[in-house]
Hints:
The structure is a homodimer. Chain A has helices at about 45-50, 60-65, 70-75, 80, 95-100, 125-135, 155-180, 225-235, 255-265, 280-290, 300-305, 335-340, 345-350, 355-385, and strands at about 5-10, 15-20, 25-30, 30, 55-60, 85-90, 105, 110-115, 120-125, 140, 215-220, 240-245, 275, 295, 310, 315. The first copy, chain A, is an alpha/beta fold. In chain A, helix 7 (about 155-180) packs parallel to helix 8, helix 8 crosses helix 9 (about 255-265) and helix 13 (about 345-350) crosses helix 14 (about 355-385). The interface of A and B includes residues 75, 349 and 353 of A.
Amino acid sequence: MSVRLQIEATRGSARTGKLITPHGEVETPVFMPVGTLGSVKGVSQDVLEELGVEILLANTYHLFLRPGVETVRKMGGLHRFMSWDRAILTDSGGFQVFSLTDLRKVSDEGVAFRSHLDGSPHFLSPEKAMEVQIGLGADIIMAFDECTEYPADGQRARASMELTLRWAERCKKYFEEHKREVPWGGSALRRRPCGSGATPRLDGAEPRPHAQSLFGIVQGGMDRELRRESADRTIDIGFPGYAIGGLSVGEPRELTRDIVESTLEHLPSDQPRYLMGVGTPEEIAYYAQSGIDMMDCVLPTRAARHGLLFTSEGKLSIKQARYAQDESALDPACDCRVCQRYSRAYLRHLYAANELLAQVLNTVHNLHYYLATMRTVRTWIRAGRAPATGVPRM
Amino acid sequence: MSVRLQIEATRGSARTGKLITPHGEVETPVFMPVGTLGSVKGVSQDVLEELGVEILLANTYHLFLRPGVETVRKMGGLHRFMSWDRAILTDSGGFQVFSLTDLRKVSDEGVAFRSHLDGSPHFLSPEKAMEVQIGLGADIIMAFDECTEYPADGQRARASMELTLRWAERCKKYFEEHKREVPWGGSALRRRPCGSGATPRLDGAEPRPHAQSLFGIVQGGMDRELRRESADRTIDIGFPGYAIGGLSVGEPRELTRDIVESTLEHLPSDQPRYLMGVGTPEEIAYYAQSGIDMMDCVLPTRAARHGLLFTSEGKLSIKQARYAQDESALDPACDCRVCQRYSRAYLRHLYAANELLAQVLNTVHNLHYYLATMRTVRTWIRAGRAPATGVPRM
């Protein structure tokens, strides 16, 4: 049994509900913080729980290199390895290896690449990406796709889409044959990760899914017709959820919006829809109101480490001298533990003095802001009212 | 009214009790974690509270340069600036400026030095060190002393001790004339720092002290007779507490022990005794059992950031490959949040991958280990029994 989306309210094309996973329920639409190497940089798992994070994204490429899938598998999978009892999604590694422009070679078989760490040679194919993701054991894993570059001409976009479709079939075939090998398969799921404080949340009526789920990815460049074809043919292969990939790769924002909206029309309305790598607070609020259920982005965490903070009054660069003696909270409208306790002056001092705590506190605030934004959107969908204050407008 | 030591039990020369400060009570003997720039690197204030930290040490030299005393003073003092409602002690800056060997010039008036950050020229005198520490507003502040280098010949050690004594008189004079200028003086003390969760703990009977306290520092190099003279003449000047300075500067450990023990004999038994810059877990346990009430050291926090962890089974370097697939807790005998939740394999991965969380979690564990060591020693003194397991032996 795969993950399933339990829709509880809709408003236009937007919907809110629960994604039921082997590691708990996830309120949707959801923003998934990025924990590249099995850690959201600087934030301990208990703080993530307190923030209300119900699903994390981890990067297969990075974990494949360090600590390696065999280590994670032997430790019982990523949940147990990082002591995180809630849901996890892994990407396929495709996006990262395609980003290694000078270090990779693509063939129909897969992608040969060199590690960005030490130049060591590696190979990822659809089958290998499945093997690795089964070993990591996330609740949701992603098909190994080719992220079409931008710009790409029609011929190139079609060829890339066809490659992704062939790979999707191979991914599904390998996954179906090997999914029982997940490290927490069978009774292992009932063994709680050591010391986790999270309460398993089970529906009274229906049992939790007890296996990983593989999502397909729609490509097709910036061509609406190719996107439709990619969606139709990916759905024909058949997955329990679908992602929209290949966006936020340098194209204008209006084009992203256009492609997302036209692709959404072709995705099954009763299954989860995941927009990959998006985005700003305005974008996640907008796409959640357009019918997207899941999003992820490094922006809140990466920006935090550079002192860029999201607030109800807009972006704020904490490094600025104007905050040196500012006693007010970072965001007076925010109820996160950082805004409730510390002043802008203190946060500015920590950042200027290059204190570790700056990165920790800034990340906690930005994640809270993103999660609160999604909470507000969910409330709005459920209530059928216009967005309350607090939802950024795009 | 100054801080005072309320001794509740003794065992030989060791004693346990409470140090009553304007910002709460501190169980003694106490280890004070170092928060150089107004932050214990990587650890948020709520975690410090949860660890049971009752007093922090902050460094005047570093805060003097960044963010500067005027900023901290305007923000209401260091407690309010960093949102820390419990006790704080600041050093005088003397130790740091003397460490700037090539960047400082000592005269009877004070020390001219250049910032290690940008080479800008500064001057600290006894009066200036008091002015700065009054502006920072710690509960306990330290006299501006000369930390005699090791080795030093008899003439040099005496000259240095005499300088420290002259400076001690000037510190006391300035402090007595200006101590009312502390930013939280008078009613400000009753205004709680924003968002602090700490509960003020007041004795039912006696009111909390409402002013800063200035401690004197005993110097005298490695000469027991000079140490005696320094102690006597510092006591003649008169302070509410006394520190032993100028140790852990490169001398053999047996010599440190000898000087500490001989100096302790000359310090008033009813006042707090503070051994500066010490030490390893074995040393803090040993000196607490010798009659020292307060200690501080960067070792637990600095070592943590380098992957060196203190456990009930000895030191452990988490970077070692032998821990890559070790599912056990860092210290199976430890009840800290890190040992309760994460495996050595995960901590080793975080460290090897240079993840921020490694520094955060390692620091939390090491601080817990130091604080637990002191809790065990306090229990031992109170119970009149031999140290339970868990107290490192020196």
